[in-house]
Design goal:
This protein is mainly alpha-helical. It folds into two domains: about 290 residues, no CATH class; about 160 residues, Alpha-Beta Plaits, CATH 3.30.70.20. Helix content is about 45%, strand content about 10%. It has 24 helices and ten strands. The strands form five sheets. The chain has a two-stranded antiparallel sheet. Strands 2-3 form a two-stranded antiparallel sheet. A two-stranded antiparallel sheet has the order 5-6. The longest helix has 30 residues. It is elongated.
């Protein structure tokens, strides 16, 4: 009797969970946590295999030109629905986590339900999708900068979660020091700016509030990836569907649907919004009226909520009213002309290429060992807002042998460079202003810029009274910022890097000639 009771209880517990949902949740976590760790890593301890996860995100793969993967993903969506949104997309999984906590604490009252069916906001979602497509045709990624789910998650992780992890590490370091333990070390946050923190906070609040109140509303009303995949999921061969002969209109499936796409009264599922979370299957365990199965019936216009005619009218209206977005510069009392253009990372080819490909996910900022990649504000225009640029003014320069950012960029906004290619890639040229140099203004010797140049592009030449002034050989300079970072002049340094709008190839530094000596003629006294 005891064994039977135990078996019955265990069977009851297992029946409360659906096998498809368990598989989906496990896979989602296997995708989510490596991406989260990769973004939050400040010690460089994540395995190289983690680089794979950002590169299979939809927008990065599209911008990188991996169209085979995009076509495969669309075919996969046509076969099985929006599995991408519920398993692979980190922002989608993050919304599920928020929604899960939102359900906690609610009374199990039949009159009070967690979710209920809403008509789709198709005019909004398809308008935003159309805007993104039109801007992409003209090589502008600004709309994706704010709407791409992967990039938004990246900015949230880098500018909010990562600093929190770093401060947690510093707290552990302080506690350990009280016991004379040195397992941790203090870290300083250099790469978070006010602008990047604010944009990440806005994204977190927007996604958090929508998820807490309405589940996957962001995915089905704002996200262009969700809207695009929704076109194909409407005709998915395997889909969530309701067996009308078994359904008793209890509404449990509708209450559990985070996408708010199940109408239990009319017994239909809006497949363009369904993200295959399988919560409904778990709730309908007794009746088994709703299931994930092969389905032939064509979805009607009623279920999609938007006719082709209305979509075409909306698209045409958007296409004829797309505004021209100008760029503007931020004025200062004393303008540093070397900072009018952003210095883009080695491998980004040109400013135009970088603006067309980068969606400011901030992954390169996280993994820059010198912490010289920082998110821009609006000082380079709206089209470059929040995208990374090199800043040598504060602390460091681009390491001569480092190619990390070119290895991890999922969009190929920063194309891969070998170490040898990196050593001759000229991202900018050092510009020397004699009138600001302390050798000229204070009649004292310096030469720090020349000592820190790894390619011998800055050399000291005779000035007067035994003093020397730096001279820049532009054909050797690679714009690494070694000279600028060490220059003691403030507020505008005497030597600065002027960005190349199109990256060039610098000459290799001359190798010092070594006199060949015949060792056989040497007498060591033996």
């Amino acid at each position: 009797m005891t064994f039977l009771s135990f078996y019955s209880q265990r069977k009851h517990i297992l029946m409360k969970f659906n096998a498809l949902k368990i598989v989906r949740v496990v896979l989602a976590l296997l995708f989510f946590f490596p991406i989260l760790l990769f973004f939050c890593d400040f010690a460089g301890i994540t395995p190289n295999v983690f680089r794979f996860f950002p590169k299979i995100q939809f927008i990065p793969a599209f911008l990188a030109g991996h169209f085979g993967f995009i076509i495969g993903l669309i075919i996969f969506t046509f076969l099985f629905g929006r599995i991408y949104c519920s398993v692979i997309c980190p922002l989608g999984v993050f919304q599920d986590i928020i929604s899960r906590f939102a359900q906690r604490g609610k009374k199990k009252n039949k009159k009070k339900r967690w979710y209920h069916y809403h008509k789709p906001y198709n005019k909004v979602r398809y308008t935003l999708l159309t805007v993104c497509v039109i801007f992409l045709i003209f090589g502008i990624t600004t709309p994706l900068l704010f709407l791409d789910p992967y990039s938004n998650f990246g900015r949230i992780a880098v500018n909010i979660f990562r600093p929190a992890v770093m401060e947690g590490n510093n707290l552990l370091n302080w506690i350990a020091l009280q016991f004379n333990q040195y397992h941790f070390y203090y870290v300083t946050i250099y790469t978070v700016t006010i602008a990047s923190f604010l944009i990440a906070s806005v994204a977190l609040l927007t996604v958090g509030i929508l998820s807490f109140l309405r589940g996957r509303l962001f995915c089905n009303a704002i996200c262009p990836v969700g809207s695009l995949l929704g076109f194909f999921s409407k005709y998915a061969i395997f889909r969530v569907s309701i067996d009308e002969s078994k359904c008793n209109h209890c509404g449990l499936c509708e209450k559990s649907c985070k996408s708010e796409c199940i109408n239990s009264k009319e017994q239909f599922v809006d497949l363009s919004r369904c993200v295959d979370c399988f919560n409904c299957l778990e709730r309908c365990n007794k009746q088994k009226a709703i299931g994930y199965r092969f389905y032939k019936k064509r979805i009607t216009e009623e279920s999609t909520g938007m006719t082709r005619r209305s979509f075409l009218l909306t698209s045409t209206a958007v296409a004829t009213t797309v505004p021209f977005i100008p760029a503007w510069g931020k004025g200062r009392k004393e303008i540093d002309v070397t900072k009018l253009l952003p210095i883009t990372p080695p491998g980004s080819v040109s400013l135009t290429h970088f603006k067309e490909k980068c969606t400011a996910c901030h992954l390169c900022i996280t993994h820059c060992p010198q912490q010289i990649l920082k998110p821009a504000g609006f000082n380079f225009g709206l089209e470059y807002a929040f995208k990374p640029h090199l800043v040598f003014y504060e602390m460091a320069f681009c390491n001569y042998n480092c190619t990390i950012c070119s290895k991890i960029c999922p969009n190929e906004a920063i194309q891969f460079l070998t170490e040898e290619e990196k050593k001759t890639t000229q991202i900018g040229v050092a510009q020397f202003d004699k009138n600001k140099c302390i050798v000229f203004t204070e009649n004292t010797s310096c030469g720090a810029c020349s000592e820190h140049c790894p390619v011998q592009a800055v050399k000291m030449e005779i000035y007067k009274d035994g003093l020397t002034l730096p001279h820049v050989y532009e054909e050797l300079c690679i714009g690494c910022g070694g000279c600028e970072s060490i220059c003691p002049v403030r507020p505008i340094k005497a030597i600065n890097i002027l960005a190349n709008e199109v990256h060039k190839k610098a000459q290799k530094p001359p190798q010092e000639e070594v006199e060949q000596i015949d060792t056989n003629e040497l007498d060591f006294g033996f």
